[in-house]
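Appendix B. Chain record.
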Amino acid sequence: MNNDTKIEVIDGSIKSILRITIPIILSTISISFMFLIDRFFLAGYSVDAMNAACISGNFVAMLSLFFIGITGAAGVFVGQYNGARQYNMLAVPVWQMIYFSLASVPLFLVLAYFSPHLNMLPPYFLKDGVAYQQTLMCLGFLGPLRVSITAFFVGQGKTKIIACSAIIIGAITNIILDYLLIYGVPGKIPSLGCRGAAIATNMSEFSQVMILTCILFSSYNRKKFNVLKNHQINFEIFKGCYRIEFPMSIGHFAILLAWYMLQTIIGHTSRDASTIYNMALNIFMFFFFISGGLGRSAMSICSNMVGRDDIPSVRETYKFFVIMSVCLGGLIAIPLICCPNWILSALNGLSSDISALYPQIKMALLLVSIAITLETIFQSTFGVTLSGGDAKFGIFADMACLWILVVAPTAALYFTNMLHSSQIVFGFMILRSAVSSSILYRRYKSMKWYKKLI
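Structure tokens predicted for this chain:
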């Protein structure tokens, strides 16, 4: 490529939307699949190990996503600069967030050291959970760093790069290392269980960061966008990213804290309740990442439109994403509702016989399918409002709904000894997604979210 290479305009056409959205969805599927495989391998090793990793992994994600939320703001600026054709500025917000990610290294190392004291695990999950949490925390800065770099590509709509790095490098690396490190190889590699799963995840993240860094600093990007020359600290842009995403990061932290509280409450209820909840939650989180991918795509496309004041295209794009969300939710619901036995048959090879729990797991999967559809609509709407820099409203509405409509009633049932089943929690989740989606839609219609940041 040379400096005269044509840069494709991102508009509201179906071709343009799909060109950006499909690679993002593929990349999020691969990341989701990576975590699902993690849990599946651990369940084959020990069901207790799987439950411990689910709870501890959520604790690490709670802290990592605080930084990921802030670094993701670079994508909004890149998108608006790209839409305004200020190509020389594209790398500036990316560098600010790279520096921010690297500054988090000491904090993650300190948190890793104190991991044995930073958990709410029940005694029967403690050993495996601490090992998983401590190992992941050591390289917790890699997630924010990866998001910082991908913002450069997402803002331009160059999502195939992310898909390739995630699918080819990340997922394959994680699957191979999961198998080798969780179970071990007799006489060559010791069986590391939860610690091995965490090492595999860390190595997968590291490989993705290395590949994306090489692409970011390629000859084309150095010449076309001056990615190396624009490395100076820019406090105005840093503050802009911080203003957009700090409220969102606080919200993400509170949301993940809510999920962590739910998992620990159910974990303390009983081993069986924890197993049912985590099995269904793994499916929910698999598709939750895909919903997030739709939101990232909506943000990428609409931020370009905001950058050139193209409101009609924003509206058409939003309609398309809502239709896509409903269709995706329907496709997800078919296997979960109509033929859940294929999921249950995969559980027959686990280290423990949980066949007695199958009826309850099937009911949980039914409820999860409804919650996923509503969550996908919410994420698409949130991506559109985020393209105008409006992070506070959506994230705090979602946070409030989660704590008030899910955590509070679940905790009330637990402390009154009335929490006998985890399925009711998924019912609360459906209510929460419906209410938060309705609230955010009203925000979208009001246009109070719309703002040019450059």
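Further analysis of this model is presented in Appendix C.
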